Amino acid sequence: MDLARAAAYSDKTPYDLWQELEEIPIVRGHCVEDLSAVPVTPWARTGVLGSFVNLVGSGRACGAYVCEIPARGESKPQRYLFEQLIYVVKGRGATSVWNDGTKKQTFEWQEGSLFSPPLNAWHQHFNAQGDATARFLALTDAPPMINRFRDSDFIFCNSHSFVNRFDGEDGYYSGKGKEIVSYRTWESNFIPDIRDFQLRDRSQRGQGATGIRLHLAANTMSAHLEQYPSGTYPRGHRHGPGAHIVILSGEGYSFLWEEGQPRIRIDWRPGSLFVPPANWFHQHFNPVNKPVRYLALKPWGFTYKVEDLSKTDQDIRAGGTQIEYRDQDPEIHEIFRAECAKRGTEVRVKV
User: Fold this and answer.
1) Which residues contact 309 (CB under 8 A, 6 or more apart)?
2) First and final CA of the chain: distance in angstroms?
3) Do 274 and 34 meet the contact criterion of CB atoms below 8 Å apart?
4) Residue 342: exposed, middle, or buried by beta-carbon count in 10 A (0-12, 13-18, 19+)?
5) Could you give the domains of the chain?
6) Contact 56/31 with Cβ under 8 angstroms?
7) 278 in helix, strand or coil?
8) What's the rounded Cα separation, in Å, for the pair 179 and 177?
9) What pTM, to 2 d.p., does this model score?
10) In this predicted model, what pLDDT tens digit does every residue of 89-117 receive, in sequence order?
């Protein structure tokens, strides 16, 4: 299909049309209850199984998909001109990464791993298990790239190697990294298990909160981890589209709302995924007797200043986008008190 011709004066974007050509399911809505249960079908391009995840909050800033590799299976070698962040939902396996003319770098991953194949580098995924499938979630910036160029050959058959990002060097996926303290950021290309990754103070967001930003593979895209103690919740805030929130541990709920409109409630547990729409306030609540941790995969980052990022840690009354506890709707705290009472959880947040 000529995407430029087909999309002209159409109600569908070039990315929409490309997705239809891939002939795999598309999951829509505000949330996914359980990533391990998303239906997948054979995906010819990848040689394994997959499903697109087009949640409302993505806008056109990014796209997501779920990929499943059968026991002892492997994907086809692939390269493409968009970034991606990969979180392993279940299983164990390995991935090989290389550029034309360089040797392969192969590393092993497991449930909880986070990594990113470099932009337009060849890569291939393998399931190391003989009796179970492996599954991962990927966030990409394919929508703006495909919408901008409208040329599948340019995106998927481009021979350029971005050696300033990856030149085949040994140890690229060793799991080592460095902390950029002033930006609350951990720089690495592979994190073996984010579920027990060490976090730093994040009290600007919420009482007792911890977190860290994650920058992988010289991407513009990024991620962050946050964790909240039992009986607490962070301050509400808002920002641009596309932050895909994956619940790693704990059970609770979130409120999403457009200013002046009723709140939408999303109940979640480990494996749930949701995406707050652009400039909708959102707030996450932990009414259970153990910490809650989540991963946010985002189409923007803080390493390269290429976007106008809002000041999400600053009081909305001072020009930021965060609602202080004293200014939130009192009903929010009353609902939280009731949810904690149902579970016998002490309310520790002070408002």
Assistant:
1) 239, 240, 300, 302
2) 56
3) no
4) exposed
5) 3-156 (2.60.120.10), 177-343 (2.60.120.10)
6) no
7) coil
8) 7
9) 0.96
10) 999 999 999 999 999 999 999 999 999 99
**Helix/strand/coil for 201:** strand
Instruction: Specify which residues 78 forms β-bridges with.
Output: 123
Per-residue HEC secondary structure of 79-137 comes to CCCCCEEEEEEECEEEEEEECCCCCCEEEEEECCCEECCCCCCEEEEEECCCCCCEEEE
pLDDT in tens, 155-179: 999 999 999 999 999 999 999 999 9
Residue 68 is which amino acid? Answer: E
In sequence order, which residues have a C-beta less than 8 Å from that of residue 185 and are 6 or more positions away? 179, 212, 213, 214, 215, 302, 303
**The CA-based dihedral angle spanning residues 251, 63, 37, 47, taken in that order and rounded to the nearest 10 degrees:** -150
Q: What is the DSSP letter of 74?
A: B
Q: How far is CA 104 from CA 67, 73, 189, 195, 341, in A?
A: 22, 19, 15, 28, 55
Say how far apart CA 108 and CA 248 lie, in whole Å. Answer: 20
pLDDT of residue 285: 98
Q: How does the average pLDDT of the chain come out, rounded?
A: 96
Mean pLDDT for the stretch of residues 41-55:
98
pLDDT level of residue 142 (50, 70, 90 thresholds):
very high
Q: How far is CA 80 from CA 99, 120, 335, in A?
A: 12, 5, 46
Tell me which residue of 95, 76, 73 sits closest to 173, measured CA to CA: 95
